[in-house]
Amino acid sequence: MQIDEPVLALDLPDAWVQSLKSAYDAITQPHLQLMLTTYFESVERHLPLLATLPVQGLHLDLARAPQQAAAALKHWPRNKVLSAGVVDGRNIWRADLRAVLAQLKPLHAHWGHRLWLAPSCSLLHCPVDASVELRLHEPVRGWLAFAVQKLGELGTLKRALLDGDAAEAKALDESDMAQKSRRLSPQVNQPAVRARVAALVAADAQRTQAYAQRSAQQRKRLALPPFPTTTIGSFPQTNEIRVARARFKRGELREPLYREQMQQAITQAVREQEALGLDVLVHGEAERNDMVEYFGEQLSGYAFTDNGWVQSYGSRCVKPPIIYGDVARPVAMTVEWTRYAQSLTPRWMKGMLTGPVTMLQWSFVRDDLSREQVALQLALALRDEVVDLEAAGIAVIQIDEPAFREGLPLRRADWAAYLEWAARAFRVSASGVRDDTQIHTHMCYSEFNDILPSIAAMDADVITIETSRSQMELLRGFGEFAYPNEIGPGVYDIHSPRVPDAGEMLALLRKAREVIPDERLWVNPDCGLKTRGWDETRGALRHMVEAAQALRREVAL
Ligand code: GLN
Ligand code: ZN
User: Is-above-0.90 flag for pTM?
Assistant: First the structure.
């Protein structure tokens, strides 16, 4: 029987570690063989203790933490089973079988038939079958291994261990060739991109002046009322919008007609926002099917699958794009839509981009370059877009980072390094603009309080966050930390079709004022509105604008 204990990879309180022995003594049964299964990180420091548990086998994630092999040779008994998780269950790349074999040979010599081979973790995180991705271009297709292919790799490894490398010469040669082709591919290596990342200096990750000076300039240029109102980006994705996008993608709708339909959706969104009296408008994101895929499709180094679905949470599935090579932005991605939207209104139009950390976090990422380097490549591509938006007259630009916190490593000790490069990547994307251009960011579903210094280090002029479901409780941390820039705490929950009345939102805003100074408080929903209908959206935003107006009167009194 397999017992999953990925918790062993975390920083555990001593009492928990000490209670393992009594827990497993209680679980064990005379005729039961237990396989204690760990993954995602090293459990090296627990190995001497694990060896005393009444279990017959131990599974280690040797893809993520290969250094555990040496520790296991030292501490894990020879007369128990070692399950070697050597094929990475969390990525989509073919394994370097020759290298894995070299890793396995000393283990095989030591444990013999008690050595088991396995994926590093459950295959839940991996799509099913790469062989059906017929539209994926070569050479990328040949570099991939989904669940089915990974099981094939385990078979190859087993036969090579038992019968010698020669018995599997063909499979091993193919693996070598895939590795080599990835290493040498001009699609993977763009020297100009590498050089640009290498040439980054401190000033590239910094606005020209500090927030205090910038905000004065932005106030002058934007001339917004107190407690300005805005939304998070998307407006309802109506059936017409979805159908138009799908037909365009299938080639059934020609570009000029498609553009016209999207412009109609943008025009409607702008007119609605003007009628509602919102202060900073958005174009509504009608042209976007997904906030990562939309940008990935326009960047080099990205590939897309037709069937590469994986479970996200509960019954939700996502189809993450694949970052296989150096990332660059050949041409502007959002400027035309945003410029068009701005041309329709004298109010400020907010440009809308997905941030580098979220682009990284919600993709399958190449394993031949550090995540930090990939994030910086993404950041530079987005920086070009931010600069182009500014040049097109856009004065407010939002760079969404809802996945910022998702990248946190399991171990506390590794947090600081991640937070440092993640915040830097965001700043690289945001710092190419003038001081009177206002940068927003947005995060949702987040526990912020333990990473507030890093959120402050992103140095966005304005951050909008999800707070309504916690009745502004999440804001308390921002107050205690004395968060220095502007904040838009969401005043209503966009996940529900319910239209809250203005009084409810006003009450939340009064609570927010206890924590955030008036001149730094924005009024907005929790998140984007793409899953809502127009009726409820109109109703809720009308009440939201009323609440902001009521607050303005109240404070003026
Ligand atoms: N701008 C995006 C939207 O409004 C943000 C979505 C998100 O936070 N996940 O849809
Ligand atoms: Zn959100």
Answer: yes
